[in-house]
What we know:
Elements: E1 9-11, H1 20-26, E2 31-33, H2 38-47, E3 51-53, H3 62-69, E4 74-77, H4 82-85, E5 92-95, H5 98-105
Amino acid sequence: PSLVGSEMCIRDRAGVGPDLEAIRELVPDAILMGWVNKEQLADLYCASDLFGLASRFDTFCCSLLEAMSSGLPCVAYSAKGPKDIVQHEKTGYLVQDVDEMAMKLG
C-alpha cells in the first residue's frame, strides 16, 4: 500500500541527491523541491500529504523530525537516523532502495 494522496511534495533541503533523477522518472507526478526557506516550512508541511526523505546520508534527520511533528507520514531509507525515528508501517515506511522508495511514494 501507498501513503500518497492526490498530491505530494518531496523536499530535499540539502539540494539534489544521487537518486533525484531516478525518483523524478519513477514518480513523475511528484513535486520535487530544492532548498526551502524556514519561513515557508510550516505552510509546506501543512499542504503536504506525505514526506519523503530521499537521502541515505542525512543521519540527523532534522527535516524528518519536522515533518513528523507536523503529523505527516514519512518514507525514508532504512539507514542510520531514520530507522531509529520512523516506526515502519505505523508512522511511515522504511525502504531499502530507490525502486521501493518510488513504489511507496506513488
